[in-house]
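Final report, Chapter 2: Outcomes

The project's central promise was a pipeline that accepts a single protein chain and returns its three-dimensional structure in a standardized token representation, suitable for archiving and comparison. That pipeline is now operational. To close this chapter, we reproduce one record exactly as it appears in the project archive, with the input sequence first and the structure output second.
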Amino acid sequence: MEFDYEETIVNIEEIIAEIESGELTLEEIFEKFSLAVEDLQKCEAFLTQGQQQMNLLIETLEEDF
């Protein structure tokens, strides 16, 4: 399954809303928080990879000029 950054952000926002609702048990909060952290790590890795690709493209362009 391909990673979808925007969809993952929506999932994180939904988890935050659930936690803030005050309707979850403490155990559920820990579980949801853990899922949100995993999703945030995936987003960070995705952005880091994208930044590295952009840096390579910029270096290539600079070498051409």
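Archive annotation: The first helix runs from residue 5 to 21.
This record, like all others produced under the grant, will remain available to the consortium after the project formally closes.
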